[in-house]
Amino acid sequence: MDLDNEKLQRCLTQLRPRLFNFASWQMGDKHAAEDITQDTLLAAYENIANCNDTTSLDKWVFSILRNKIVDYFRSAHKKRSINFSSLFQAEDENNDFLDHFFTSDGYWANEIEHANWSNPENCLQNKQFWAVLDACVNQLPKNMTQVFTMRAILELEAEEICDICQLTQANYWKILSRSRIGLQQCLTYRWFGEHK
Predict the structure, then answer these.
(1) Which of 29, 48, 143, 169 has its CA 20 to 30 A from that of 178?
(2) CB environment 69-87: b (16+ within 10 A), e (fewer)
(3) Assigned CATH for 5-79
(4) How far is CA 28 from each of CA 10, 32, 98, 144, 170, rounded to the nearest angstrom?
(5) Share in percent of the chain as helix, strand, coil (round to 5)
(6) Is the pLDDT of residue 24 over 90?
(7) How far is CA 94 from the centre of its chain?
(8) For 78, how many CA atoms within 13 A lie in the half-sphere containing its CB?
(9) Which CATH architecture has domain 84-190?
(10) Span 24-49, average pLDDT
(11) Span 124-142, mean pLDDT?
């Protein structure tokens, strides 16, 4: 890539807030997000020769960030110890979050009303939509947010997410499904304005 040192520093400085926000959203820990952001910027600066053209600088730097976040979760998995009482508490939180959707025997309580999602492309281009989506993701319980973002944003495979989060396949799919339902309901209410 043909960027002088000053222009590269300016580009990376402009990217920094977006990188930090993304890392913070993914990791849920502002201190760790700050460290990952700094590591990402340093890696980008040191390896700028590997970036092919200036139009893809943002994508290239974000791919470095994504890889560093995945590495963070992998290393956190290796260091983690399990507090069994917190597992039961997390399971209770998940159940409370979507209890109104299910009967006591696990069937749907009522038919879910779906929003009018007739033109999703328009939503994706709207900055306000992204702010609402961010708020909806952040209202999910922590483990739902983590599983959803690992799958949807970091694009990790189910097996790897199960390994990192120490989940069974069945629990992974249950958490992912519930997070999608929660996001759908939140977007229906907060974005599409369809109040029950």
Answers:
(1) 29
(2) bbebbeeeeeeeeeeeeee
(3) 1.10.1740.10
(4) 27, 8, 22, 12, 24
(5) 75, 0, 25
(6) no
(7) 17
(8) 5
(9) Orthogonal Bundle (1.10)
(10) 87
(11) 79
Say how far residue 145 (Cα) sits from the centre of its chain: 6
Distance CA 170, CA 37 (A): 33
Give the pLDDT of residue 196.
47
Q: What is the pTM of this model?
A: 0.50
Segments making up each domain of the chain, as ranges: 5-79, 84-190
- Cβ proximity of 113 and 141 under 8 Å: no
Nearest to 144 by CA among 84, 81, 97: 97
Residue 90: predicted pLDDT: 46
Phi/psi for 140 (5° steps) reads: -65, 155
- Rounded to whole angstroms, how far apart are CA atoms 182 and 108? 14
- What is the pLDDT of the chain when averaged over all its residues? 76
153: which 2 tokens? 């944003």
